[in-house]
Amino acid sequence: MDAPSEETAEVELEQTFDRTVDQGNRRINRNWASLIMTGVVGGVDVSFGTLAYLVVYSRTGNATWSGLAFSIGFIALTLGQSELFTEDFLVPVTAVLARGSGWLLLVRLWAVTLLANLVGGWVISFIAMAGYPELHRAAISTASHYIDVAGTARGFALAMLAGAAITLLTWVQHGTESLGVRLVPAVAFGALLAGGQMLHSVLDSFYAFDALQTHHSPFGYLEWLKMLAWAAGGNLIGGVGLVTVLRVAQVPHKVATERSS
Questions:
Q1: What φ, ψ does residue 182 adopt, rounded to 5°?
Q2: What is the mean pLDDT of residues 62-77?
Q3: How confident is the model at residue 257, as a pLDDT?
Q4: What is the pLDDT of residues 96-116, one digit of tens each?
Q5: Confidence class of residue 6 from pLDDT cuts 50, 70 and 90?
Q6: Residues 6+ apart with CB under 8 A from 60
Q7: pLDDT for residue 1
């Protein structure tokens, strides 16, 4: 099979940009109820991935296999059309950069989605730890890794990688309109993110919630908040700085067209 020509690649890149901007405009202009419920559902969807991770990890002690199991969460996220806080580092940011306005709406989207994700994840964590007491030890062990690494240079690097990985996942998925094709990067990046134990603000908060529900956690909610802030900062820099800005810079003529329209 012949490789796509440079002209074809340029057209596909522009089409991906157009799809991203269109969806971004829709996202940041949704009403409050839609924002909240989409975020809660996203937290619920992905928390089943963290549950799958703990089930496999408790039986194998292997983070790689557990990471593959975690991808169930990203599959649910993709098929369910729900939303994670860090997914919003690409789609709405691209729309705002293209238009040169809408920054307050973007901040609203980030704040509401993050809080709603956490609420949805906390509820599932509460139910899961009540239903699976045999997972308590795995939950504490897994969460302690992220709590310990937060606040360190290594932790910030892992957070930047996590932000870049999930933002790249979002970009790749917008490169096609086929839902079946979108599942491939969902599985691959989900396995990398969880199996590689990157520091992700939302996902690792769910592990922390799991541990906190056991009542034997060596850390409390204050330590979790510190981890959340450290991870979110690194995720933001990695996602927006290493992926979104560079992708938008590939099509400066499209940005100019959007701003003039």
A1: -65, -25
A2: 95
A3: 76
A4: 988 877 899 999 999 999 999
A5: low
A6: 66
A7: 45
- What size, in residues, is the chain? 261
Q: Tell me: the pLDDT tens digits for 173-203?
A: 887 888 888 999 999 999 999 999 999 999 9
Looking at the structure of the chain, the number of domains it has is 1
Tokens of 15: 């089409």
> Does 2 map to a domain?
no
- 93: which residues sit within 8 A by CB, 6+ positions away? 24, 106, 240, 244
Neighbouring C-beta atoms of residue 245, cutoff 10 Å = 13
> Which residue type does 88 have?
D
Does 123 fall in a domain?
yes
Domain at 78, CATH number: 1.20.1080.10
Domain-located, residue 20: no
